[in-house]
Design brief:
The protein has 171 residues and is of the alpha+beta class. Helix content is 59%, strand content 16%. It folds into two domains: 124 residues, Alpha-Beta Plaits (2-Layer Sandwich); 45 residues. The model has no long low-confidence stretch (mean pLDDT 84).
């Protein structure tokens, strides 16, 4: 790799480290091309990305960036999973690691916070951005739904009583 190419890779990695909501670092030794393609597809589906980079260049790119303490995870064959949504890369990496023993989660970072493997697993257990938005929308809609039910309940009760009285008279 030429010096200009290395500088470009360092710049790209620098953008990844500074712009991502979360980054997960994993060892991928032994993964076949098909398994790596599957990991990339799952990440893409969740709105995340995967990047394999030389550890030395990644360490250079991390200098002065949030999560600089993540350099301790950059040894051996590492892959970086990242996205703007802080939960997506952790969820996909955790799920893929359960299905495939060759992917080993080492740790990661979310902003300034550097996480070990347990921290990444805890992050994966959190609801994603879309799940949070859905639950907030449900919470906002629940009072209106309850109000509509409360307003409609007396009329429904009266209609039920009247139909019962009609049935008694008819019998």
């Amino acid at each position: 790799m030429e010096r200009a190419q290395k500088a470009q890779v360092v710049e790209e990695l620098g953008h990844i480290f500074s712009d991502s909501g979360a980054i997960v670092v994993c060892h991928y030794k032994g993964l076949s091309v098909a398994e790596m393609t599957d990991l990339r597809a799952q990440m893409r589906e969740a709105g995340a990305s995967v990047r394999v980079a030389k550890n030395r260049l990644a360490k250079i790119a991390l200098e002065g960036k949030p999560g600089e303490g993540m350099t301790k995870f950059l040894t051996g064959p590492t892959v970086l999973a990242y996205s703007e949504d802080p939960v997506a890369p952790a969820k996909v990496a955790e799920k893929f690691a359960k299905e495939n023993d060759k992917l080993v989660i080492l740790g990661g970072a979310m902003g300034e916070e550097v996480m070990d493997e347990k921290g990444v697993k805890a992050l994966a257990a959190m609801p994603s951005r879309e799940e949070m938005l859905a639950s907030i929308a449900a919470m906002l809609g629940a009072p209106a739904s309850n109000l509509a039910s409360a307003i409609g309940a007396p009329a429904s009760n009266i209609a039920g009583i009247l139909s019962t009285l009609e049935e008694r008279e008819a019998a």
